[in-house]
């Protein structure tokens, strides 16, 4: 047994490195703000002036928390850490938009085996840039050093955000009507779900992250690290647009398209989604073919090229598509919604095809994905 004194530093925690990381990230965090933010970086709590909420008729606060999952392993392997923040912000704030709320502020949490100031600053810099793009204030965060629990180069990230919406404007199943249609908004790639499957497929095939893949036009690692698209501002604009009455939105994340759409449909409502309306981008076909992943499994795990869906009246679909594409997001009519009894009577329900009902504890509607994707 050594007689040497044990300090926090000798136990593996470098307080000075943490302070340096904060100094390095200050400039980027300063840009991710809103006029309502009170105080600056370094306080025990982030503060936000909510007086505008008091002028609302019946303000409803919406909150969400999430992480990035095992996509961080790709960032760590490539030693690229300034994009993972977009995945974190997208997973958190775009869940809030689903109910029609405007995300207001966010906090983040980073756990790492060893604080490397430049790496932490790169991670937070990405979070701040994503918050700036979403119009969300980054009001605080925490970096925790966990020696012995995580390896020195390992880290995980999580975050939480809060938004607000007028009660009368809340989107969801209560608005969905017979005859509505489903409009798809394209994803930027894999986003931040299914990476345990993706990494297993890639490892099993023996592919390296620096492998150039012609179908991607870049390396495998660059494709897998493509940041999650931030839909916040385009969707808020769509909700507020004249001539468009969005009834429901769904963020296509874990569980896939059918399950997440079912969550925002009322019980007794049926949605028929047509594979023939789109071709999944090359990365989805590659993962499926490389791992011989069954169709049902890949559709439950990956977004298949659709990051969001909107449910709205059929007469407004083209307007919604135009507005989305004006913001650089490809959109298309994906399917239709009907009362389930009518769907059966009109032959909308295909025999022998799985019908997904609700998900994540929600006793929602029913969704059926039919047909085949067009060839690339």
Automatic annotation (TrEMBL):
> Sorted alphabetically, which CDD domains does this protein's record hold?
PurM
Q: What is its main location?
A: cytoplasm
Q: Which residues form the PurM-like N-terminal domain?
A: 55-165
Where does this one sit in the cell?
Cytoplasm
Q: Name one GO biological process term.
A: 'de novo' IMP biosynthetic process
InterPro entries reported for this sequence: PurM-like_C_dom (IPR010918), PurM-like_C_sf (IPR036676), PurM-like_N (IPR016188), PurM-like_N_sf (IPR036921), PurM_cligase (IPR004733)
Which reactions does this protein catalyse? Answer: 2-formamido-N(1)-(5-O-phospho-beta-D-ribosyl)acetamidine + ATP = 5-amino-1-(5-phospho-beta-D-ribosyl)imidazole + ADP + phosphate + H(+)
Q: Start and end of every PurM-like C-terminal domain?
A: 178-338
Q: Which GO terms describe its molecular function?
A: ATP binding; phosphoribosylamine-glycine ligase activity; phosphoribosylformylglycinamidine cyclo-ligase activity
**Might you give the EC number(s) for this enzyme?**
6.3.3.1
Q: What are the annotated GO cellular component locations?
A: cytosol
User: Transmembrane among the record's keywords?
Assistant: no
The source's domain of life comes to Bacteria
Keyword flag Translocase: no
The entry assigns this protein to a family as follows: Belongs to the AIR synthase family.
Which HAMAP family does the record associate with it? Answer: AIRS
Protein name in UniProt: Phosphoribosylformylglycinamidine cyclo-ligase
Question: What is the organism of origin for this protein?
Answer: Terrabacter aerolatus
Q: What is the lineage of its organism?
A: Bacteria, Bacillati, Actinomycetota, Actinomycetes, Micrococcales
